[in-house]
């Protein structure tokens, strides 16, 4: 996903431009820290105190020049209008958040308002068109059969959450003024790996396969996750 995001950033903004980035649902700050190390100014918005503590600890270990380019705000992604003015950011990330939001449209509309004209909105969502793949490949036939007609599922944390369909999000992005520009699949072949699986010695080959599959039909359509990139008109 990081490679996909970099591809979109490089293709949309001048080389060397320091972008204003908002990471909504920042988590432990993996993407935020990666982008601030690349020279951008990043604001992380997160409501989980434990995740904020992890991100702050990681940031504290960075050089001063990096620390001063990143700020962390405790807050809900649905309240971006409380914290920021419209058009304040060149890039807005919302990765792994929509599955926990029962009504995502207001959140997405708020994120689009945060973008400057031509800004990039990056979403990572659970693929509602491929919910039967994981149980099917694991031999859970009843679970696979039930997954065809729903966008609800239980994640690996044991939480009941929701997925999004590409067709629906494409319509939503068009309606909020940030139409879909590109989309990718994420975790096409590796989604069934159990937690704690060791990283293989040929990890670069694995990444190359996943990257190729994530941009190639029909493989990307059955990925566990979808990475959608919209552009503010």
Provide structural commentary.
By secondary structure, the protein is α/β, with parallel strands linked by helices. Helix content is 36%, strand content 24%. It has ten helices and nine strands. A seven-stranded mixed beta sheet has the order 3-2-1-4-5-9-8, sandwiched between helices. The chain has a two-stranded antiparallel ribbon with strand order 6-7. The longest helix is centred in the first third of the chain and has 12 residues. It is globular and about 50 Å long. It starts with a helix and ends with a strand.
Summarize this structure briefly.
By secondary structure, this protein is of the alpha/beta class. 36% of the residues lie in helices and 24% in strands. It is built from 10 helices and 9 strands.
